[in-house]
Predict the structure.
Amino acid sequence: MTAADIVATVLAYLLGSLSFAIIVSKAMGLADPKSYGSGNPGATNVLRSGSKKAAIFTLLGDILKGVIAVLLAKHFAASVGITVIGIACVAIAVFLGHLFPLFFGFKGGKGVATAAGVLWALDWRIGLVLSIVWAMVFAVSRVSSLSALVASAAAPIAGYFFFGVTPIFWATVAMMALLVWRHKANLQRLISGEEAAFKRRA
């Protein structure tokens, strides 16, 4: 890794540490998302506050920080010496920042939105494939966690198909493993048939 890789990775982690669920909730005078529902500081739990606007802002913020970190690393790669390994590290670092935010006691969200932003920025084809997989599973199951788990499992497959065994592929593998780990409680509820689903509108 170059010095530029290391600096970019650290900055990506700090950007990822901005927990928009907490920032948006505080700005809009809502309760701390860690104090109700699942306790997860993410868009899905913020929606439980009753504010769709806050949930949308949270979702956009979490997606965009992943997009911005990766696109900036790719944009400045040639000029400052960020390597492909550095870009892969940036992708993982901004995701880790969301999971373990420095600014919020290392207690972050599950990372679905940020992972989506990272993957779209790494390669739009990977982002598109995973978004389609997520949407198809959600349309049938109405279960957000199941959709995320299936889409995350597809990430390394898409990464291998488009890039082969490269640092980008290993970044998708790392994010998949972290996403599954963060959803372990959801996975247990899915197995036991206790995971909640979003109700269809009449």
